[in-house]
User: What shape does this take?
Amino acid sequence: MPRPTKYRKVEFFPQSTYFIPLGKPKCEIKEIALKVEELEAMRLKDIEGLNQEECAAKMEVSRQTFQNIIDAARKKVAVALTEGNAIVIEGGNYTVKFCKFKCLNCGNTYEVNYEQDKRICPSCGSNNIVCSKRSGCCRKWCK
Assistant: This one.
């Protein structure tokens, strides 16, 4: 029996999570799902310029696991760019710290962990929520 997948630590969420080639109808485009931790691996290595060991430490995984994650991410992006596919950033096995959110409809304030990936208020069911701390820990929902 394989070991359970360990959650990868991520620090960044993009504001835009869907990228589509210009001039192609959406109904004709294949989507490629890029996991949140795959994007984080590319950000750390390719944008931050960290070495593999530093990246692995930040994500709290082994160097080999980090290499597997970034290899998968780069392949998905390369395929999407060369074949004209859409990229959707979603899912994965990731975790970050808790963050406080406020519902703009009912005023409820609550904490959520990103691994739960909830975008609705637990009180009223609204998806009209914002980060109440604006601390940068929850860029995924901050507007």
About this structure: The chain is about 30% helix and 20% strand. Residues 63-83 form the longest helix (21 residues). The chain has two domains: 8-94, 97-131.
